[in-house]
Amino acid sequence: MLDYPSMLPAIVFVPFAAAMLALLIGRYTGRHTGLLMVLAALTCFGMSTTLFLNTHQAGQAPALFTTTWFSVGTFQIDLRLLGDAFGLFFAMLVSGIGTLVGIYSLSYIPTDLPNSRLGRYYAALITFMGAMLGVALADNLMLLYVFWEITTIASFMLIGFWYDEASAKRGANMAMQVTVTGGLGLLAGVVLIGVAAGTFTLSELQQQTGAWSRLLASPLANIALILVFLGAFTKSAQAPFHFWLPNAMVAPTPVSTYLHAATMVKAGIFLVGRMLPIFGGTALWSPVLITVGLITFVLGAYQAMRETDLKAILARTTLSMLGMIMLVYGLNASEQDALQILSHATYKGALFLVAGIVEHATHTRDIRELGGLRRKMPITFIICAAAALSMAGVPPFFGFLAKEALYHELLHSEVLHAAGVGQWLVVAGSVLANAFMFAVSFKILLGVFCGPETEKGHHAHEAGPGLWIPPAVLALAATGLGVIGVTSVTEHLVQAISSDPHSHVHISMNPVHWSIGPVVLTFITIALGVGFYMRRTAVEAAQARLDVLPSAPRVWERMMEHIAGFATFYAGRWQNGSLHWYIAATMAFFIGVSAYALVHGGLSLANATVDLTELPWYAIALGVLTIGAMTAVVRANTRMGGAIALGATGFLVSLMFVVYRSPDILLTQILIETVSTIFILLILFFMPSFQPEQMSITRKMINLGISAGVGIIVFLMVLLSMSDGIRATRTLKEDYLSRALDGAGGANAVNVIIVDFRAIDTTGEICVLVIVGLAVFALLRSRRKLA
Amino acid sequence: MTVSSPILRTVARFALPLSLVVSAIIFMQGHNLPGGGFIAGVLGAAGAAIYLLAFGVERAARIQWWKFAVVGLCISLLTGTVQALLGYGFMNHTIWHIGSYHLPTATFFDLGVYLIVLGTLMTIFVELGMEDR
Amino acid sequence: MNTHLIIPILVPLFTAMVLTFFSRQPVLQRAMSLASALGVLGYVLWLLFYVDQHGIQTMAVGGWEAPWGIVFVADRLAAIMLCLTMGVGTVAMIYTFWTVTRVQQQYFFYPLMHVLMGGVNWSFLTGDLFNLFVSYEVMLISSYAMMMAGASRQQLRQTFKYIVINAIGSSLFVAAIGLIYATVGTLNMADIAVQTTQLTGQRAAMVTAASIMLLVVFSIKSGAFPLFFWLPDSYPIVPSGVIGFFAGMLTKVGVYSLLRVFITVFQQEGGELIVQILLVLSGFTMLLGVLGAMCQWDIRRILSWHIISQVGYMLMGIGFTGHVDPLIVNMAIAGTIFYVAHNIIVKSCLFLVGGIAERITGTQELKKMGGLLNVAPGVAGLFLVAGLSIAGIPPFTGFAGKFTLIGVGFSGGYFLVVAVAIITSFFTLYSMMKIWTYVFWGKAHESQWQPLSYRGMMAPTAVLVLATTAFGVFAQPFIDLASKAATDVRDPNNYVTAVLGQGAWPVVAEAKSDEADAVAADDVEQSPDAERRAVAVVANLTREAH
């Protein structure tokens, strides 16, 4: 049996190993691969629970596993996993719901798909579970980021499960883009925290040690916090990044349940919970979280009213509840975070699974086409009723306790007291949002299961136990935790698993313990909610009139299109295939940086001390002639003329070596010029006749400017390098001359350099020559062969 | 491709042997006087090119000139390698004394250069010449 | 005397020459190619271990000592690059066994590939500036020839541009070498380092101005903004398989040269200018490269543009070396080296996977591909790992590389360019997912597909995928190696001593770097290393903020 600290890596490792296995055996096991997921999830759940019970009951310090992954200079990334209560609660949530989703998938996922595709589905799902468990247990911020990104990738793959359809590809890519934006923000934020604090260890920072004070004293702290928020808000779909979540509903229902209701979207919330002990006291914390949370809270619930697709409704309510939990964190009420997370996970998980069952039975999710299923699907109806009532927040369901706790906090929060009028805004917003949630709950429950039976419902029948057991478990939890709330069991439980187990959270189902404020708010909420439900057509009509803003997904897509449009424009212009432009730009860049370096170094013609008057007249004449010949090359109207002028330039340059008395180079150059002129003439033989380019005068001027620039820069540099005070005082010339005969047995130092001193240079150049020969041979021969 | 001119043919008939002899001399004197494998190779190839222009590339095309280049590179590399295997170090040229004549092993290296230049230039000539058809 | 250092150059060249005689015996040719490449690979791996334990190895070619002769130098960085060259080269070569055409093989495909590998090895080993130029020429000429293999009109047109741009680079290279020789009086890199340490005033300024030309040359080679023109145009026409080697190695030779020349070699006063320019260029390179990629609809083009943006990351790492703190400089170089290694492996891998997709679907256009996940899930898996690695998603090598560079950048206070790097990272993932969405998802257009076998090509590709996974998950030894290599690169003392002998390195510079260490240590006494750094950084930032 594993000891407690080694269970931590085991919890993370088991799913990844199972995912690998699923990939390998998937093509043989097909839909049965789901059993592997159930098994892995149960194992993790068992280990998490064992760890939790051990820590909680024995009152021991949380289990810790640590080893270094890698360290670079001053940065160290540890594989550091900590089994604290909140982390283990999250792990239990992830693995527990993972088990249920695995069981559900076994019956839900169509069996007519190819085996390997089913194997990949489960592999992605299990990978996701492993990554979430990693997020839950990581005690190193970089490690947390690592798992965070893996959840994003797994989510991409799972949303795109129906990848034959455009909507799935769209939804997957949008979710990916938004969450990756946040993920990169998180990376930047985490690295900034590491740079400022000198550590990535979460618990060290949470305990407010020296590293923590360094972090908060740093001007980077606020930027880091904003970047971390960016990560959390995109992952948990907070406004204005909320729009990817409804689009992600193209995923199979088990995926929506697991990722987009119960666990992944809570990762952002979880992260904020982890950050609360670190940044909770900073000036940015409450204003940002309360604003963003409240907006999302109200917006989600409001939009949920309008939707007609069952999963879309649920997605919007999920947004709303995520916003609510952000709000709770904004109030620093971390003692009730587990309560809110758990309550939402139970009823929302159940509702999503019910939506899947309904779709399975009726092949539609449109609430307008549904109705009266109560009789045909009694079990599903009961499950849905329990979950919906919990969402509505009526006693004795768990949701009621959560809502009471929220209202209590809203009325008593010190953070809000300081805000003055703002407090009532927040309270009013929350009541409004909860009233919408109430109405939506009944819209779902009554709309699907009550009223007259619809056409689509004729062939509906009760689902098999594989499908209804998982939501039943969740619904039971939503009911049970509420009912036993009359005792103090629920209260103790949610307090123990919260991120702040030492503060008291006051909830009870026993009316004796209710305080007046929250109860009044609840009554207002229910009254409003009933009103909204009764007048729902009017409400929806009013919403349609108010709907003036462009839809958020469109805004995002337009933004991406604009960026792509700009990129297309730029890449097309920049990389336009014109060699002319390529050369001009390269040379212009060369002129720019060289001139900058010269100016920066304070060099100009004034530093040149070369006495040009010392040059003999024939050298100057040669120079002038060379310039003339070069001009002729450029001005030539025929290829032949150009070739001859080029040859002339070459010969004139080789004559320069007469001036400098180097016969070897002279000889070489002359021969090379001869041979290359012959080659050029030979090639011209095959070229089509020359059409001089019609260039505009500006273009000519630009070309002239660039070539003059290059000439001037190089000329200046050569002059400078020859000047006293710059020119090297020590050269190897004398050494070469003296060593040539003694050491190498040759009187011709040039040749000795070529074949001996620097023979390896020559080796390279002769390789080049050989390849030229081979290349010409290969090119012309293979062309002839192909033609 | 042939430039059929009687003058060129006459010149070419002399040019070929002459250029080969001159190139051999230039090659041998390279270590002490202006010259060397590179120049000699270019000279040899230039003479041969004139010959080919006069009499057509067909004759020359029967020879696989690129193999000269390849063999040349092998010789040059082997010169260095043999020295290395003998324990002198790569490209560590020594001087052989054959009677009164000093033959630096660098000369073999230079011979490789000669063959490469000749082979490559001839390949280009011949292949370009063959393009005609 | 380490005559064996010539092996990575000599053996490929010999192999190439011998293979030309067997152009009509494909099987023999492949067997000999493979044997040669594996042999050299074995040697360079041994060399890496040897250099890591025994320090820098040198070899004076022809027995002529520096600065008169040419010296080959194998330090850790060079050895790492050699291993990557031969590793990726061997993998790409095995891959080409399935892709090379009969005509290509008959016309020196494998000989050219060996010369190319030999040339790349050469550029890593040489310790002489002019010899570096020669190695570039060897490399370039064989790359021209390989690009034209097949001799289609499109290939000739693009190769011509590639040749012209590189010819400009070569001319500037020679000009720069001439100017540097005139000013410093030597071409040996270690000797240049010695000569330039004491340079000040107008001589130093002249060396900087001349080395700017080298900056242009190496920037062309590495595909940096604004000189990357040749890259996106020419890579789409390189024959499949060998493109893996091109994409992985060729630009990195430029990056290696930048690291070697501007950090180890040029030490003159005011030489930081180059590094500052590189830092500015890096931002543009990253962003414009990745923007170019995101709007392409051809798989090769997407990947080619990405090479540019990732070179930007490396330039950024080099740009960080302008920092005063030697610790940060060291980490920056280490990060760059690690990133280079990562990129070589993964970039090759992506092009190889892309080649498989091209082979199955018979097209390079994304919109005509699709549904490969159903048909070839294995290929999808290979792409996924490589794509995620290139985007810097953990736990693959890209993550460790990206993390190090971002961390160093933040520590050094280079916020703007790091922000650009992070934005670039987003678009990298965007385009990888675009490829995934269009190539692997969606419906298959199987009617146009060719019934060609591709399974053999997966094995060499999988080797690279395994490498990026293994080096990413077990990153520590490789990061340590990169850090040690970085120390060699940053402090010319070891390099110069190995080449020119004990006492060649002027003591002055040594004292200077000691001083910097001492200053850093004075800030906080007796605190653990990490905390000390953090405090120093925060202190700096607070100072800046006020």
Strand order of the largest sheet of chain B: 1-2
Task: Please report which band the strand proportion of chain B falls in: under 5%, 5-15%, 15-25%, 25-35%, 35-45% or over 45%.
Answer: 5-15%
What's the helical proportion of residues of chain A?
Answer: over 70%
Could you list the spans of chain A in which at least 5 consecutive residues all have pLDDT below 50?
Answer: none
Mean pLDDT of chain B: 81
**Distance between the terminal alpha carbons of chain A, to the nearest Å?**
74 Å
Tell me the number of structural domains of chain B: 1
- The strand count of chain A comes to 2
Key attributes of the depicted protein:
heterotrimer, B: 133 residues, mainly alpha, two-stranded antiparallel ribbon, C: 546 residues, two-stranded antiparallel sheet, 23 helices, 76% helix, disordered C terminus
Condensed summary:
Chain B has 133 residues and is mostly helical. Helix content of chain B is 70%, strand content 6%.
Account of the 3D structure:
The complex is a heterotrimer of chains A (787), B (133) and C (546). Chain A has 787 residues and is mainly α. Chain A has 32 helices and 2 strands. In chain A, α2 runs parallel beside α4. With 133 residues, chain B is mainly α. Chain C is mainly alpha-helical and 546 residues long. Among the domains of chain C are: 286-473, no CATH class; 506-546, no CATH class. Chains in contact: A-B, A-C, B-C. The interface between A and B is large, with 41 and 49 residues.
